[in-house]
Amino acid sequence: MLSTNSAETECIYDRESELRALDETKSGVKGLVDAGVEKLPRIFIHEHHRLNKYSVCSEPKFSIPVIDLQSIDIKDASVRGRVTDEVRNACEKWGFFQVVNHGIPLTVLDDMIGGIRAFHEGDLEMKKQFYNREFSNKNVVYNTNFDLYKVSSSTNWRDSLNVVLLPRRPDPEELPAICRDILLDYTERVQALGGILFELVSEALGLNPNHLKDMGCTDGFLLEGHYFPACPEPEITLGTSDHSDSSFLTVLLQDQMGGLQVLHENQWVNVTPIKGALIINVGDMLQLISNGKFVSVIHRVRANNTDARTSIASFFRTHLPPENSSRVYSPIKELISEDNPPKYQEITIKDLVEHYYNKGLNGVSALEFFSINY
């Protein structure tokens, strides 16, 4: 049985047992809500000094850049150059930006949000078929908190459906029927958009448009469909705790609930949802190969007590063995010099992902472990 945060249970709190109790229900955070929980179980309470380490920006209109891709196919070098400059500025200063007029219809975005929400709000016995904590040999995994048992991590108020799509493409029959068709449609469109984004990012780095694709940055593709139920005490927990992404690039689709915050100049900046927009952010692997020119920024998701929040994060990187190859990545040689020596070690994606999963979402960038100290 999970204890609540009352003083009466302080002396009998056993974190490991309560984590195991949550895990064994296979119903996640949604199961707690369905059971009528009114006080947060102790495992979800985040330390006050971590929750409030940085202040929240008080300027409501201050947010990440918005980039319009509508004219990107026009054979006009000046138009392409303007968009490339905007991408460079966003990747250098923010590590985040939103794209509009990206070519994916609003109906597809809405249906994808609806499909993932329908899965998480669907029949428990259906969801239990996908519940697992073993990622290495499964294409489809549903669970709560991939880092549930990590000592350094606080438990987050969210459940997730994880789907590996490249290079280990799943059989459609492996996918949940309730969201199968829209998931396949949406991910095909995001992969196509990813090709455009990597061209722009390559050009923003001063490289050939195909440079990053030729390095294998688009070879892997992993989707995570997150569900954040309405929380009875949102002020003492998080939907997703402080972290950076391990990808080259991440494409995020979110509903209109809000809650995403990006750490910028030592303050949390709220990312206001724009209907039809997609959020793009630099991941750790792109920061590494760009030698720190583009930044993988810490971000988090606040819990709320109004309604459930749904988001879909698409990560461009390979996942876990056996699909992770032995390909070594290091700062791109064209971006280093005597005055700008390599800041990071040569690593494989396997090295980064294993370290990332072992440390959990503890607010510390995985790249710190791979930095070169001169």
UniProtKB/TrEMBL annotation:
Keywords: Iron, Metal-binding, Oxidoreductase. The keyword Nucleotide-binding does not apply. Its cofactor is Fe cation. Coiled coil: none annotated. PROSITE patterns: FE2OG_OXY (PS51471). Residues 217-320 form the Fe2OG dioxygenase domain. One of its GO terms (molecular function) is metal ion binding. Belongs to the iron/ascorbate-dependent oxidoreductase family. PANTHER family: 1-AMINOCYCLOPROPANE-1-CARBOXYLATE OXIDASE HOMOLOG 1-LIKE (PTHR10209:SF771), OXIDOREDUCTASE, 2OG-FE II OXYGENASE FAMILY PROTEIN (PTHR10209). This is Fe2OG dioxygenase domain-containing protein.
